Amino acid sequence: MQIAIQVSELKFFTGDGVLVLDSLSFGVRRDGFVFVVGPPSSGKTLLVRLILRELVPAGGQILLVGRNVARLSPQKVAQLRRRVGYVPEQPAILTDRTVRDNLLFKLRALGVRGEELEEGISAALQLAGLSGLEAAPAGELPPLDRTRVALALALCPEPMVLVADDPFRHLSPGDQDRLMEVLLRIHRAGVALLVTARDEDIPRRHGFPQGVSQDSPLGVLYLRQGVSR
How many C-beta atoms surround the C-beta of residue 39 within 10 A? Predict the structure, then answer.
């Protein structure tokens, strides 16, 4: 079975020496969709930053798309990140540009040109549910559609894994369900997902089982304030 993300015996201390993660282990299958749920300050964003090699753990191992991130040079990390879409808690969206221009800017910055560029924009718009909004100014969109733009940016160019840090924040319950429909569509398209959330009811009402098991592509990892294991 192929694994998109494998976290093994992960340990992390804050700069003040406070233990936050202790021997944390879980995996996201290549066909998986795993939620990381917990209250504020439970370590959700910290875990995301460790997986993306923005921080270095005190112990343990993280494999991302089969690569041990701790052993990669900065150049290799940058190359690996091209295969990983990322939606941060506060996405960087060009609010003075259209939806299409946001995607165009990112793909051109990555050196994508010609037919590949147009195909990438079209695929990202479709998966994120933004078809028909290409010419809309990004800064004038409602919260749900701005989150869709952040997802579309993360989908450029066709990642194997998508990591989204609390994309449900500030959305109404109805919009949260609409966003889940988008995430499930991305998952069905063959992208592995790791998504954080504060509200454990979000994955529950969409049929996600408790816990993370290699027997199921869907799962929920629970973190808590204090030390998570």
Answer: 12
Within the chain, all domains assigned CATH 3.40.50.300 are found at: 1-83+159-229
Indicate the fold that domain 1-83+159-229 takes in CATH: Rossmann fold (3.40.50)
List alpha helices for the chain, DSSP H: 44-51, 74-81, 99-109, 114-127, 143-154, 173-188, 201-204
Query: CA-CA-CA-CA torsion for 33, 222, 77, 68, nearest 10 degrees?
Result: -90
The predicted model scores a pTM of 0.94
Exposure on the CB side of residue 196, measured as CA atoms within 13 A: 25
| Beta bridge mates, 28 | 5
Residue pLDDT, tens place only, 76-128:
998 999 899 999 999 999 999 999 999 999 999 999 999 999 999 999 999 99
* pLDDT over 90, % of the chain: 90
Which residues are CB-neighbours of 28 under 8 A, at least 6 positions away?
A: 3, 4, 5, 6, 34, 161, 192, 193, 194, 212
Given a contact cutoff of 8 angstroms between Cβ atoms, the answer to whether 154 and 162 are in contact is: yes
CA distances from 165 to 17, 21, 36, 181 (A): 25, 18, 9, 17
Question: Tens digit of pLDDT for each residue in 12-68?
Answer: 998 888 899 999 999 999 999 999 999 998 999 999 999 999 999 999 999 999 999
| DSSP letter assigned to residue 211 | B
Instruction: Count the helix, strand and coil residues of the chain and give each as a percent rounded to the nearest 5.
Output: 35, 25, 40
Task: Give the phi and the psi of residue 23 in degrees, each rounded to 5.
Answer: 55, 40
Q: What would the two tokens of residue 61 be?
A: 């191992």
